[in-house]
From TrEMBL:
Pfam families: PB1. The lineage of its organism: Eukaryota, Viridiplantae, Streptophyta, Embryophyta, Tracheophyta. Keywords: Repeat, TPR repeat. Residues 1-10 have a biased composition (Basic and acidic residues). TPR repeats lie at residues 31-64. Residues 1-22 are annotated as: Disordered. It comes from Eruca vesicaria subsp. sativa (Garden rocket). PANTHER family: PROTEIN CLMP1 (PTHR46183), PROTEIN PHOX3 (PTHR46183:SF16). Residues 239-319 form the PB1 domain. Gene3D superfamilies: Phosphatidylinositol 3-kinase Catalytic Subunit, Chain A, domain 1, Tetratricopeptide repeat domain. This is PB1 domain-containing protein. InterPro entries: PB1-like, PB1_dom, PHOX1-4, TPR-like_helical_dom_sf, TPR_rpt.
Length: 593
């Protein structure tokens, strides 16, 4: 038993592996179908239905599957095009896509557009630079980068060739001002209209130069000290000190008030650069460590910290990367930080990469004329099929198209007729196989006769349908004549084998079959004569075959008529001999026929 178990265990494990592979392939196929359905709903601008299909597709795939990143990117497009646009959710979907595929250029471009709408131009420029690094020939990235540079320059900032944002060269760092000058400034401003402190700090350089020679008393110094202390207090209220505890390592950092969870995660990444994925926790009133997963939970931790006078503590726990939702984004930002400084695209070694204005205008004109949404990626296949259909509608309704259509219809008719002809030939071959059974007993002869007759009737139906589709096809006429001839001969042989009474046997049906066969063979000869050229050897061979078939038909008919004592038997026999003699006199070898 133990040996049998050992033999069965590998087979069982192998079958389990095969079953898992089959299930994975089935899930991937179903997910692809759901994705295509979502794409169709997206084209119809039914974004809710599209996102529902995308969500179902994601559930069927592994978390790290490449196709998941593409679906997340499509979901970001749905959020971007919804009314009103939910750009924050779109950014989150792009983050998920990039956590799986960091070099997903479409997700980077979509996130850059979202950052641009949210006026986070530095982040938008960062994503665009990453796309240009991955795909230097991407025209969309170059266009957005140029647009962002112009916007930043209009705000007094400058973007160098390495896509690093710098201050304008006209910007002057404000010099430090003594408390005495601050007092004089406050006095003069107080006499006018007591403007805000921000305006005083902005213009203190200009006013300080005018007040250097003035006499300042001790009372003004006290006022300035009071103002400075008030300013320091205001600044302290916007930033607070916190402690990050990782095992026995405790580090202090400054954290802005009402920060987001991602900002907190960035600070942890800066303070502990060697850590990869982490969870951030805090102690609640009961002393339990609670994991912070949302901004609302972060606010709750701040409320609990305000009740105690101690410095707020956050506890850092290292986890696997799939448990940290911000890990992929931080890794990407680290890559961008290292690559953005070295990014520099030049044309022929001089100047920066730039799209010509006429190319941009042409692209916009094309989008307008083609009625394409500006903010969606072009599906060139569907667009091409649509434009091709519209062009086809104009072409097929023109007078010039009717001639080719007629020729095409004739070709299709001939193809259909020849297909039916071959199917009829199959039935005729089966019927001929039955003839070998006519030499057996009575029951066997009866069964063979019924089967052969049934196959011949099916062949006749196929030939008649082919002749209805293509009446002037001589091969069909020839096959129909041969079928009628063999049907008549089968009926006659059946009478001979079964020794039926010839005086009471209704022979008129068989005679009519011979006549119909002879008529169809003559029509086939006429069609062959009209279609073939005189020098065509294949046509000559077919003509000889039809002549021999006519001889055989007349000969078989004359035999039947002789047995029935009909007066036309001698006439048909002489016609058969004459026709066969004509074939022999022409020197044709008809043995193969």
């Amino acid at each position: 038993m133990e040996k049998l178990k050992k033999k069965l265990e590998p087979e069982t494990s192998q079958s389990q592996i095969d079953n898992s592979k089959v299930e994975a392939l089935a899930s991937a196929s179903k997910a692809q179908t759901l994705k295509e359905e979502g794409n169709k709903f997206f084209q119809k601008r039914d974004f809710e239905a599209a996102m529902l299909r995308y969500t179902e597709a994601i559930k069927l795939l592994p978390k790290d599957h490449v196709e998941v990143s593409h679906i997340q990117s499509n979901m970001a497009s749905c959020y971007m095009h919804s009314e009103p646009g939910e750009y924050t959710k779109a950014i989150y979907e792009c983050d998920l896509a990039l956590s799986i595929t960091p070099d997903h250029t479409k997700a980077l471009l979509k996130r850059a557009r979202c950052y641009e709408v949210l006026n986070k131009l530095d982040l938008a420029l960062r994503d665009v630079c990453m796309v240009s690094k991955l795909d230097p020939n991407n025209p969309m990235a170059s266009e957005i980068a140029e647009k962002l540079r112009k916007t930043l320059e209009s705000k007094g900032l400058r973007v160098n060739d390495d896509s690093v944002i710098e201050l304008s060269p006209d910007y002057v760092e404000p010099i430090e001002v003594s408390p005495v000058l601050w007092a004089e400034e406050l006095k003069e401003r107080g006499k006018k209209n007591k403007k805000s402190k921000q305006v005083l700090e902005k213009n203190n350089n200009l006013e300080s130069e005018k007040g250097k020679e003035k006499i300042i008393d001790k009372q003004s110094k006290k006022k300035v000290k009071g103002k400075q202390e008030e300013k320091v207090i205001i600044e302290d209220k916007s930033i607070r000190d916190v402690k990050f505890v990782y095992s026995e390592d405790i580090r202090i950092a400054e954290l802005p008030l009402n920060c987001t969870l991602f900002q907190l995660r960035e600070v942890v990444h800066e303070r502990f650069p060697n850590l990869r994925a982490v969870h951030i926790k805090y102690k609640d009133q009961e002393g339990d460590l609670v994991t912070i997963t949302t901004d609302e939970e972060l606010r709750m931790s701040e409320v609990s910290a305000e009740r105690s006078l101690e410095t707020k503590r956050f506890y850092v726990m290292e986890v696997s990367p799939d448990q940290d939702p911000f890990y992929g984004r931080l890794v990407e930002m680290k890559k961008l930080k290292t690559t953005a400084d070295s990014f520099k695209t030049k044309v022929n070694g001089k100047g920066k990469c730039k799209i010509e204005d006429w190319m941009v205008e042409f692209a916009r004109l094309f989008k307008i004329k083609a009625n394409v949404d500006f903010h969606t990626c072009l599906n060139l296949q569907e667009l091409g099929m649509k434009m091709n259909s519209e062009a086809m509608e104009e072409v097929v309704t023109s007078d010039e198209a009717q001639g080719p259509f007629d020729r095409a219809a004739q070709q299709f008719q001939e193809v259909a007729a020849r297909s039916l002809l071959k199917l009829g030939n199959v039935y005729m071959t089966r019927a001929r196989k039955r003839l070998s059974l006519l030499r057996g007993g009575s029951e066997q002869v009866e069964a063979a006769y019924q089967c052969a007759q049934r196959d011949q009737m099916k062949a006749k139906e196929m030939y008649q349908e082919a002749m209805r589709i293509k009446p002037n096809l001589f091969e069909v006429l020839m096959a129909l004549g041969l079928q009628q001839f063999e049907e008549a001969r089968l009926s006659w042989y059946y009478v001979i084998v079964r020794h039926l009474d010839l005086k009471t046997w209704p022979y008129e049906t068989v005679v009519q079959l011979y006549r119909s066969a002879e008529r169809n063979i003559k029509r086939a000869m006429e069609g062959l004569k009209n279609q073939a050229s005189p020098t065509d050897e294949a046509a000559k061979l077919k003509k000889s075959w039809l002549d021999v078939l006519s001889c055989a038909l007349l000969y078989e008919r004359s035999i039947m008529e002789y047995k029935l004592d009909l007066p036309t038997s001698q006439e048909n026999l002489e016609a058969a001999v004459k026709m066969f003699g004509s074939e022999v006199s022409h020197g044709r070898d008809n043995t193969d026929i």
